From TrEMBL:
One Pfam entry name: DSPc
Sample GO molecular function, one term: phosphoprotein phosphatase activity
Hydrolase among keywords: yes
GO cellular component, one term: cytoplasm
Swiss-Prot/TrEMBL keywords: Hydrolase, Protein phosphatase
Record bears the keyword Hydrolase: yes
InterPro entries the UniProt entry points to: Dual-sp_phosphatase_cat-dom, Prot-tyrosine_phosphatase-like
Listed name of the protein: Dual specificity phosphatase catalytic domain-containing protein
Domain annotation Dual specificity phosphatase catalytic: ranges: 9-116
Species per Swiss-Prot/TrEMBL record: Gimesia aquarii
PANTHER family in UniProt: DUAL SPECIFICITY PROTEIN PHOSPHATASE, DUAL SPECIFICITY PROTEIN PHOSPHATASE MPK3
Length: 140
């Protein structure tokens, strides 16, 4: 798990998200679970759990993609300590984090994903990249 915004935003994988003690120890109170191929996680009441399953390729349902970005934006804006997780923590999670931060900070998705890639592994699937780019352009 890697911290993107101190005490506010983390990117992780399915194993990180399932470590309830580790999540609680970090003060994380919201999890956005993007892993379609992983079973849902049961958390204690202290954790807000949002399951918005995405795939690494194309053919994501646009409202689910939009909801993932907007939900994360809201959590960041109110400084809700949030973990964004997918199976490997290298494609969907960084992509959704970059999309939300690019909208909040009014900078390009390309620039934001480069900043995130500088913090750790990042390999966004081309299909997902294209879908997010198109969605961000549509909502300018």
């Amino acid at each position: 798990m890697r911290e993107i915004i101190p005490q506010t935003l983390w990117i992780g994988n399915a194993r990180d998200a399932r470590d309830v003690k580790g999540v609680l120890d970090l003060g994380i109170s919201a999890i956005i679970d993007l892993a379609m191929e992983e079973p849902p996680i049961t958390f204690p009441r202290e954790i807000v759990y949002c399951r918005l399953p995405l795939i690494d390729g194309e053919e994501n349902h646009p409202p689910v993609l939009q909801t993932a970005i907007e939900t994360l934006m809201r959590f960041i804006q109110v400084e809700e300590p949030t973990l964004v997780a997918c199976s490997g923590g290298m494609s969907r999670s960084p992509a959704i984090v970059a999309a939300a931060l690019s909208k909040i900070n009014a900078i390009s998705f390309d620039q934001t994903i480069k900043q995130i890639a500088a913090t750790g592994p990042c390999d966004v699937a081309p299909g997902l990249w294209n879908e997010i780019q198109a969605l961000l352009e549509l909502n300018k």
